[in-house]
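User: Hey, quick favor. My workstation is busy. Could you predict this chain's structure for me?
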Amino acid sequence: LNGCVVANLSLNSILNKHREGRKRNKLCLMTTLFSKYQAATNSVDECFMTILPVEDEKIINFQRISKRSRCKLSSDLLSMSTSCLMDLIYNPCETHINICSPAVSQLFTDNFDYQTLDDFIRGILTDDEVLGNSIHSAFILESQGNCVAINNCSSYLKVIRDFINRW
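Assistant: No problem, here it is.
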């Protein structure tokens, strides 16, 4: 959880969802939260895309891309998509809330090339997939509340305006 997060929600249901996911799959390292809040919080120059199977919300692909470039999908990913339904989610609102298992800190110390959380996620999805590790996602529903990470002055103004207007 970063210091730039503004939220009005209880994380109990999301924590329980993460615990249930860990019971089903001991190699689930992390659950990362996304919001459907439509604030101008993501960068103007950069966005990201994620791909999830519909049935289990396990993140298959995570790419941070320039808005002026094209995203690239591997042929392995496209062949996998023929066997199950996939959701391609373009530029979901990042909350910067990640519920981690105890193994995450050990992986960060063992793999010193993970400098950022994006590096960690990419590394788990590409390199550590051989070990069976996975990262899941959860979306905050409007009925649960709202959550958004503030990245710049314009997003701060938008969120504060919405907050004053009772979100």
